[in-house]
Amino acid sequence: MFPINFDKSLAQHFINCLTTGEAIGSVHTLDEITTLAGACFYALIVQGPRGQRHSAEQQGLIVESPQHPEHVEADDAMAFNDIGTAIQFAGILCLMVHEQQYDSVYEEQIACLVGQGGEKRTTIKPIAGFKQPQQKPPETE
Q1: HEC letters along 22-44
Q2: 112 - beta bridge partners?
Q3: N or C: which end of the chain has fewer CB within 10 A?
């Protein structure tokens, strides 16, 4: 289990900064880092399909999906899992940078598609910046 001490006003500050582009300021404690990570996760969710639908509904627009509501819900769940997997992959990349392992595997900038496939396995589809074409993706579980 991971400890969380959540502060609503700090979360609101981070969300406002991410929304407006203002500087976040210093983040030092485990609680601040966890809350910032949560705010970033939130920002990724609201900019995806679910957030776009919600925003349109808030503006009084009727959003009709060609999919059955259960399929929309399943797609939302898949997007939620894919975002979590992408964040874990970015975290692993940051760890590789810190441990000076990144440059042997990747170019300065990379592009890829990251998702959670069947059996909760991470799927990474390289687009650019991967030095080794058949590398095994790092474990995210």
Answers
A1: CCCCCCCCHHHHHHHHHHHHHHH
A2: 126
A3: N
Q: Hey, is 71 helix, strand or coil?
A: helix
Across the strands, what pairs with 114? Answer: 124
Q: Cα separation of 8 and 10, whole Å?
A: 5
Angle at which helices 8-20 and 30-46 cross, to 10°: 50
Instruction: Give the residue from 136, 132, 109, 108 showing the smallest Cα distance to 124.
Output: 136
Question: What tokens were used for 75?
Answer: 């797609």
> Half-sphere exposure of 67 toward its Cβ, with a 13 Å CA cutoff?
8
The structure tokens 């940078």 sit at: 97
pLDDT per position as a tens digit, 89-132: 999 999 999 999 999 999 999 999 998 876 778 889 999 999 97
